[in-house]
């Protein structure tokens, strides 16, 4: 029986996407060859790559607006470094909202001067800093839109004249935003887009080519753009499966439609956390993420009982990150609301039992 998959990443994909991807691994388009044993220069794969790149811009509303989409490797973690190498000349600003922002800061510090514009480290990152000043002399401001580990999300982005760089690994394609406010967006595929192995980068082309340092070829966005996102052999399976997920999303009605579903799931989840006296939420209410809900048991003695009940209900992947403890329910686009209902039922059953 298929489990209710709340894994934070790699994470749930639509069932029909898994089926299509599985078929393609055995025999792509009934041509007698597996997708993963043909040339990435074949027409079949070049079409997949181009379709995936076009779907990204279409779904984000960025077509014809000077942006390019790239499917790279090295994870969002390589983007911590690559964004700085390509964009940081004098000074960049970072908003520190948790573990991933912290890692982005550490990598960028190896490249140049950075300042921490704001941080929520004073409260173990359970909120999003607001109302901070953004200096106007920055090469860019780096943000993390959704903090996967802590379960917080930026709801309103700073208005500033400096370019915005945003790590959207765990909430890309989940909510309607004016994506033209960002100059560079990156996201590891494995949270809301596809399997692990590829990282999406969406960059405004005019931002590039301004730094004086010599860039290694493989770390140069312009070289990747010039090569059609095929500077070296791309991760064909990850790109194909991401393309299938993007097609699925388009068929479901795009970001606006999925956002409504995500809101329903989040409302159901957070109402239970708020109303059930056995649980308390971790993140500040106004900053809660619809993607990752973090919560704890008020009485840790109930942990064993609760964990057993979760297991019996086929609920998987709800353990919290070690830096927060407790539980984390990741409710990415592909998670059906029925899974959230199943989790909420177990929580209320526990209340009836206790
Ligand atoms: C998971 C995650 C990362 C790291 O992604 P990798 O692809 O494993 O490098 C970075 N940022 C955020 C917000 C994440 O959720």
TrEMBL record:
One of its GO terms (molecular function) is O-phospho-L-serine:2-oxoglutarate aminotransferase activity. GO terms for biological process: L-serine biosynthetic process; pyridoxine biosynthetic process. InterPro entries: Aminotrans_V_dom, Aminotrans_V_PyrdxlP_BS, LisH, Pser_aminoTfrase, PyrdxlP-dep_Trfase, PyrdxlP-dep_Trfase_major, PyrdxlP-dep_Trfase_small. One of its GO terms (cellular component) is cytoplasm. It is found in: Cytoplasm. The keyword Secreted does not apply. It catalyses: 4-(phosphooxy)-L-threonine + 2-oxoglutarate = (R)-3-hydroxy-2-oxo-4-phosphooxybutanoate + L-glutamate; O-phospho-L-serine + 2-oxoglutarate = 3-phosphooxypyruvate + L-glutamate. Residues 5-343 form the Aminotransferase class V domain. Its cofactor is pyridoxal 5'-phosphate. Pathway: Cofactor biosynthesis; pyridoxine 5'-phosphate biosynthesis; pyridoxine 5'-phosphate from D-erythrose 4-phosphate: step 3/5; Amino-acid biosynthesis; L-serine biosynthesis; L-serine from 3-phospho-D-glycerate: step 2/3. Catalyzes the reversible conversion of 3-phosphohydroxypyruvate to phosphoserine and of 3-hydroxy-2-oxo-4-phosphonooxybutanoate to phosphohydroxythreonine. HAMAP family: SerC_aminotrans_5 (MF_00160). NCBIfam families: PRK05355.1. This is Phosphoserine aminotransferase. It comes from Aestuariibaculum marinum.
């Amino acid at each position: 029986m298929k489990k209710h998959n709340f894994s934070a990443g790699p994470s749930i994909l639509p069932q029909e996407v898994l089926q299509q991807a599985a078929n393609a691994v055995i025999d792509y388009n009934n041509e007698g060859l597996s997708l993963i044993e043909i040339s990435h220069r074949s027409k079949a794969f070049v079409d997949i790559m181009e379709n995936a790149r076009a779907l990204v811009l279409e779904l984000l509303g960025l077509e014809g607006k000077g942006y390019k989409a790239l499917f790279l490797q090295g994870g969002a973690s390589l983007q911590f470094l690559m964004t700085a190498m390509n964009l940081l000349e004098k000074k960049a600003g970072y908003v520190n909202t948790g573990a991933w922002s912290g890692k982005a800061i550490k990598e960028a510090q190896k490249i140049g001067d950075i300042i921490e514009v704001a941080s929520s480290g004073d409260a173990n990152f359970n909120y999003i800093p607001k109302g901070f000043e953004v200096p106007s002399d920055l090469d860019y401001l780096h943000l993390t839109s959704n903090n996967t580990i802590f379960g917080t999300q930026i709801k309103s982005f700073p208005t500033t004249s400096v370019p915005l760089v945003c790590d959207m690994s765990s909430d890309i394609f989940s909510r309607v935003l004016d994506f033209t406010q960002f100059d560079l967006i990156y996201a590891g595929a494995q949270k809301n887009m596809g399997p692990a192995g590829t990282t999406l980068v969406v960059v405004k082309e005019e931002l590039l080519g301004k730094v004086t340092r010599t860039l290694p070829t493989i770390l140069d966005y312009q070289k990747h753009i010039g090569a059609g996102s095929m500077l070296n052999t791309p991760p064909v399976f990850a790109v194909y499966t991401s393309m299938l997920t993007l097609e699925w999303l388009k068929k479901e009605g795009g970001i606006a439609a999925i956002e409504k579903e995500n809101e329903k799931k989040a409302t159901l989840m957070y109402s239970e956390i708020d109303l059930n006296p056995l649980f308390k939420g971790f993140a500040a209410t106004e900053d809660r993420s619809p993607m990752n809900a973090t919560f704890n048991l008020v009485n840790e003695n109930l942990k064993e009982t609760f964990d057993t009940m979760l297991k019996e209900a086929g609920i998987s992947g709800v353990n919290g990150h070690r830096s927060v403890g407790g539980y984390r329910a990741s409710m990415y686009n592909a998670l059906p609301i029925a899974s959230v209902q199943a989790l909420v039922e177990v929580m209320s059953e526990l209340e009836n039992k206790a």
